[in-house]
Design brief:
Distance between the termini: 54 Å
Number of helices: 1
Largest sheet: 4 strands, antiparallel
Radius of gyration: 21 Å
Number of strands: 34
Structural class: mainly beta
Mean pLDDT: 91
Helix content: under 10%
Length: 387
């Protein structure tokens, strides 16, 4: 009898050997080859490479609420559902001619994609990738479709996005996916190029390429309309050529402050979120692209546009001083913190490498070979608003 019990225990252990969670996993985009690599951060390793995802030159990723599936948005209009545990493509559709990102709803049932061509937003069932709603984002005489940018999920099963050509922000309630309720905010500023949602899900902020300032929508009080903030921020103040527009979703929110890249300047701007006024300018060696806070908000990590795209700087968020300068290599394109912030993963495109740094000691603890890596997306995003 004892031998039977031992045998059953061994069978059970063998059956469980391949079972794992996804909380320490993620994806790295290999933009030039249309492939991705599944990674895990406990042992800092790449697990599997998956090919056949199309044009990933501006790819982004969101996760299902259980963090098993990744939804990859490709520039060719492809929407690809990836099974992290099986390591394969679960489903793929070409939903437009040119897309620029997407979002997943608060309840995880819907995936929305923002499109340049033909414009508008399309919403899909997250399980089947069947189309459930098509929002054409028409403007003017109703015959023109606008490019859509800055698409994020918001609390109460809503999506928010900006119309690049129309200068509008749309708030869409998708609690009844077949009958989305759309609230339009017009004349918010010229050429909104990207947007972010603050981590608490309250404020949607759109950057304006056509004029100075930013457009802010308070989702607690949308009836108050869109407010213009930071009138001195933006295109008209440029003193230098802009080699790469900052991604607003890469701004840092730390306590009562926002840390944002100064467009056309070698500066990081510090904004008081209570007043939406600039309170400091921090000189840095290049034009910032991503300005990101470690999860505990104590450190701010910054990468830069060409020609300083080999450099990463770290700021102390309390005293606003640079505490470390790193030079991982040419074309540092993206950074992603592990869920509790003890490490940061950095893509170094031109070196075909992803580096992992200890955020306490600043030591490089691992390097992984990747083919032209760009975006890094960890599954911790599954539990965050607006990512």
């Amino acid at each position: 009898m004892r031998n039977v019990i031992i045998s059953l225990a061994l069978v059970t252990l063998t059956a469980c050997a391949g079972v794992r969670g996804t909380g320490d996993m993620g994806l790295v985009i290999e933009r030039a080859s249309g492939s991705i690599q599944i990674i895990e951060t406990t042992n800092n390793q790449a697990l599997q490479r998956i090919e056949g995802l199309g044009d990933l030159s501006h790819a982004s990723v969101v996760y299902s609420r259980d963090a098993r599936y990744a939804f990859v948005f490709g520039r060719d209009g492809g929407l690809t559902k990836v099974d992290l545990l099986k390591g394969n493509i679960a489903k793929r559709v070409i939903q437009s001619g040119n897309s620029i990102g997407g979002a997943i709803s608060q309840d995880g049932r819907l995936v929305a994609v923002s499109n340049y061509t033909p414009g508008g937003v399309r919403i899909f069932n997250a399980d089947t990738l069947q189309l459930v709603a098509d929002i054409p984002a028409v403007y003017g005489d109703g015959q023109q479709r606008s490019k859509v940018v800055g698409l994020v999920d918001a609390p109460e099963n809503r999506f928010v996005f900006s119309l690049y050509d129309a200068g509008e922000i749309w708030l869409v309630d998708v609690n009844d996916p077949g009958k989305p309720i759309i609230t339009q905010f017009r004349n918010i500023g010229q050429l909104p190029y990207d947007a972010l949602l603050t981590p608490d899900g309250r404020y949607y902020i759109a950057g304006l390429f056509g004029e100075d300032g930013l457009a802010l929508l308070d989702l607690w009080h949308p009836e108050q309309g869109v407010q213009r903030i930071l009138a001195e921020y933006g295109k008209g103040e440029q003193k230098l050529p802009v080699y790469k527009m900052p991604h607003l979703e890469g701004w840092a929110s730390a306590g009562d402050r926002l840390f944002i890249p100064g467009i056309g300047h070698h500066e990081v701007l510090v904004i008081d979120k209570n007043t939406w006024q600039q309170v400091a300018r921090i000189p840095v060696p290049g034009q910032p692209v991503f300005v990101m806070a470690r999860p505990d908000n104590r450190q701010i990590w910054i990468n830069f546009a060409h020609p300083r795209n080999d450099t990463v700087q770290v700021l102390d968020a309390e005293n606003l001083e640079v505490i470390k300068t790193l030079t991982p290599g040419k074309a540092v394109l993206h950074m992603e913190f592990t869920p509790r912030g003890e490490q940061v993963w950095i893509s170094v495109r031109d070196a075909d490498r992803v580096d992992v740094y200890d955020t306490r000691t600043f030591a490089r603890v691992q390097s992984l070979s990747m083919t032209r890596p760009s975006g890094i997306f960890l599954t911790v995003r599954a539990g965050k608003i607006g990512l």
